[in-house]
Each structure stands twice: as C-alpha cells, then as structure tokens.
Design brief:
alpha/beta; 3 domains; 19 helices; Rossmann fold; 484 residues; Alpha-Beta Plaits; 12 strands; 5-stranded parallel beta sheet; globular; 14% strand; 5-stranded mixed beta sheet
Length: 484
C-alpha cells in the first residue's frame, strides 16, 4: 500500500505551514484521544505554554517577514530542546505548546528553563538586523494529573502559569498551582460570550434537516449576515450540536487567495474526511472508475497515488472526470450515514466547488448537508458581478433543497442577556444597557469588544465581587466597532 498520499494529507491537516511544528488541530485531537490513554497507563504529562515577550513591537519595528523568521527559528529551538516522547505545537501567532509525556512538573520546569536559556543566548539575525534582534520568552508549566484532571483545565492551568510569568516581569518560567487570577483577567476567558444568545429560531431552522425522520436528500443551508452578527458562531454552534449527536461533521474555510483554484473549497475538507475515516477510501476506490480515482487523486492525495492521471485524455475530458467525480465521491461518502460539511466564508468560494454543490442538490443518491456562512455585503457584490459565479449563486437559491437563514441585529433584551451571560454578576443598570445597545446597534461582536475594551482599560471594575456598570462613564462607550 502506498502511504505517501495519506502522509501528505495528514501533514497538511496537522502541521503548521510556517514552522513545521504540529498545529492546533493536532493539539485538540491529542488532548481528546491521548490523555485518557496516559491516565490508564499512569504516565505523567507536563505541558509547557510559551509566547514571545513584546512580539508585536518586533513586527512593528522589523516587519512581518522578519517576525516570521523569528517564529521559525524559535520553533527550531523548541524542537531541539525537547526530550523524546515530546510534541511541539504552534497554537496561534507567537503562542506555542510542548507536551512532555513521562515528565512530571519538576521535569517540565527543567525543560522550560532549558528552552528559555537557549532563546536568551540565541542570536536572531536577519537582513534588517544583522547584529540580531533581542528575543525573550515567558513560559508556564502545568502537569497532568496533579495540576488538572481534564484537558481544558490542563491548558487553563498552563495559561495561568504563563500569566504569572508575565506579571513577574517576563522572561521567566512559572509553575501552575496555588494562585488565582485577578477578576479583570479571569473574566476575559468568558469572551466570546459562552452561550449563543438570541439565535434560537435560526438554530431550530438549521437543525431541522438533522431531526429523526427527516427526508434523506442533499441540502444546502446558507447563513447570511453582515459583519459582526455571528454567522460563524452560529455555524460552529450547529456543528457542535451535530457532533453531540455523533453525526459526521467536517469544517473548512473558503479562502480569498484560493478562489481562483478549482475545487479548493472542497479538496481540503474531503481530504480531512478520508484521513479521519480511512476505511472509506478502499470502498470509494473500488466503486469509482480507476481513471476517476486517478484524477481525483491529483487534488486529494488521501485517495491514493495519481500516477498516470490524464494519460490519453483531452483537457475537457479531464475536467469532466473531475467534476462528475467530485459529485460521485460526495454521494458515496454519505451513502451509509449523512455527511455534514461546514464551510465558512462562502463569499470566497471557487466556482468549481459551488457548481458541484449546485448539481448535488438535484441528485437523488447520498445525503450531503452543506452548512455555509457568508457575509451579506461581499456576497451581494458576487451576485451583482460577472458571470458565471453570479449565475451559480442565483441558480443555487432557486433549488428546493436550498435554504437561506439571515441574521439581524439583536434587540435590547438580548444585548442585556449577553452582558449578563458574560459578566454573571453585575449591578442593575438600565442606562448602561441602553447606551451599549444604542452604540452597538445590537451587533454581538460590537457588544463583546466594547465590554472587553472597558475591562482591559480599567473603565469597568468589580466592587465586592460584582461588576459595577453604573460606574462606567457614558463617554467611554465607543461609538463604532472600529473604536471598540
């Protein structure tokens, strides 16, 4: 069996493109699947969380290209500093994790100190800074199970330890345990709002195809909203609920930089499906024609080798094989159980993927349910733009198996509910809620960013454990989302 395609698909899914370390998707799966095994084997685990001190200033001074070079070099140093049975992860931006299997907290602190000392002595030289850029890092260490009994609490403990290092002056290592965050920092973990507020009707509409007894057919459901109204949040909430029912859910994002690449919106999400469910690969390969499998394999390595693809075929025949093969593949992947595809930023979809979705709605076989989210403003420009993308969007909307769910602003009552959900304990202040509603126009993102800004700037504080909304000066509530 040729495993090269599978390995390549796994690399694309679980490896950070810039640094070559594992990414946050790998980290989520690792915590979900590996922690229980370590507990059964009574194997300790230490987690190191670190980030760069003042990295924004480095980017502002030397530029993002030099910033990327520093991140890559830091990743190399982390990798070189870790013992066997350790995993290095770039979580996001300049945030990194290391998981040390078989290491207790003391060993984790020792390794963290080794990373810090190595970074301190490293000369981060670039073309703009041949003498080197001074780079320092702060680190937090937590151990499982002594500091935390669950994955979420373990990461939380490491995060608190990292925060302690920042408060202690940076460029140091701190150990989790025995220390509480101030309320102004603790509350920031409740952003975005822990519960989706004011979208019950939209949720009910989107979940209807998932109900028992729902007609088996292919569907396309589009969540459409202006910026800040929570289209992505709603999409993820539907996905969370569907996953809770043990339905097969796969998430992808359409990219502006890839919209000219045929099938780019589909290939990564299908590769994810075939990698997570490898048993389907052999079934698909036996039921599709050999030539179709080869053509699809040029775009989806997880299907297997694509040697000989296109031999003796005219370009239009290859395009036809790919197009019909994509539809056949989706139907076969959903033959035994519904296949739920979640696509964010549909306004950046490529034309070929959109046409596959449109044609899929007329097919009787399969049960593929596509949930997509798009910005209304950008989508309107697409539909008013040149053919053929505008034509496809118009045709899609005419299908009986298409449903559009629009999102509007929240009313005052739901804005108040959001604030209460985030802050939990606060003074009753109708005047504050009215000011916040008037300024935000009921846009959830504006509400969250305004609250977060007031807290981080010290304009909203606690009194006797209760957030004092009455003490917020009216002039401090920003007038726009950009100012929040």
């Amino acid at each position: 069996m040729d495993l090269s395609g599978i390995r390549e698909a796994s690399r694309l899914i679980f490896v950070d493109e810039l640094t070559g370390l594992y990414n946050r998707r790998f980290m989520r799966q690792y915590l979900r699947e590996r922690l229980d095994q370590l507990a059964r084997d009574r194997t300790p685990l230490s987690v190191i969380m670190l980030d760069l001190d003042g990295f924004k200033q480095v980017n502002d001074t030397y530029g993002h290209l030099d910033g990327d070079l520093i991140l890559k070099r830091l990743a190399d140093l982390i990798r070189a500093s870790l013992p066997a049975n350790a995993y290095a992860i770039r979580f996001a931006g300049d945030e990194f994790f290391a998981f040390l299997e078989g290491a207790d907290a003391a060993e984790g602190v020792k390794v963290a100190e080794g990373i810090r000392e190595r970074v301190n002595t490293e000369r981060f030289a670039t073309e703009k800074a041949p003498d080197g850029i001074p780079v320092r890092i702060s680190l937090g260490v937590a151990a499982y199970p002594e500091d935390a009994p669950s994955p979420s609490e373990l990461i939380e403990a490491a995060d608190q330890a990292l925060y302690r290092s920042k408060r202690a002056g940076k460029n140091c290592v701190s150990r989790a345990g025995g220390w509480a965050l101030p309320p102004e920092v603790e509350i920031l973990k409740r952003f975005p709002c822990p519960r989706l507020v004011g979208r019950d009707d939209a949720l009910a509409e989107l979940e209807r195809p998932l109900a028992e007894g729902a007609e088996r057919k292919n569907r396309f459901l589009l969540v459409e909203a202006n910026r800040g109204l929570g289209k992505t949040r709603l999409l993820l909430e539907v996905m969370r609920r569907a996953a809770g029912r043990r339905l097969r859910c796969f998430f992808g994002r359409c990219l502006d930089s890839h919209r000219a690449i045929p099938y780019s919106s589909l290939t990564r999400i299908l590769a994810d499906c075939l990698t997570r469910e490898p048993q389907l690969r052999d079934t698909v390969r036996t039921r599709l024609s050999a030539q179709t499998v080869k053509e699809l394999g040029t775009l989806i390595p997880a299907l297997g080798p694509s040697d000989g693809a296109g031999e003796g075929l005219a370009p239009e025949d290859r395009r036809s094989l790919l197009f019909h093969g994509m539809g056949d593949l989706l139907c076969q992947l959903s033959e035994q159980a519904p296949l739920l595809l979640f696509l964010d930023d549909l306004h950046f979809v490529d034309e070929a993927s959109l046409e596959v979705f449109y044609r899929l709605l007329d097919r009787e076989e399969g049960k593929v349910i596509v949930y997509a989210a798009a910005q209304s403003e950008t989508l309107a420009r697409q539909e008013g733009g040149p053919l053929p993308l505008a034509r496809l969007f118009a045709l899609l909307r005419q299908s009986q198996n298409f449903l559009r769910v629009g999102l509007g602003s929240l009313p005052l009552a739901h804005v108040t509910e959001m604030v209460t959900e985030i802050l939990q304990r606060h003074t009753a202040s109708p005047a504050f809620f009215q000011r916040l509603y008037d300024a935000s126009e009921g846009i959830p993102l504006f509400v969250e960013e305004t609250l977060k800004g007031l807290i981080t700037k010290g304009l909203l504080k606690t009194t006797d454990g209760m957030w004092n909304l009455d003490a917020v000066e009216p002039a401090t509530v920003p007038a726009s989302l950009e100012a929040a």
